[in-house]
Amino acid sequence: MKKLVLPVLTVIALLAAAAYVLHRRRDVKECAADKDCKLIYSNCDCAAVPAADPRASLDGGGAVCKWNLCIGRKTSAFCRAGRCVKSGE
Known about the structure:
Elements: H1 2-27, E1 37-41, E2 46-50, H2 69-72, E3 77-80, E4 83-86
Antiparallel strand pairs: 1-2, 3-4
């Protein structure tokens, strides 16, 4: 039984730490207005990120697509509740 207690406590501590980090991230506002957000694209999709994000594109993983979902759906980036989101999310 003693051998099981330490791993269980470790898992509980890791879960608690992850929950704290996720909670803190939710409190951080990425944007205040739609102009504070932008889309970055991969070969097949896109992501809404803060305008200050230095990335020019997403890592597409080398996927080859005939059609980019975001371009085909005319997706836009919006600020909602302090988070950058894609239209339709």
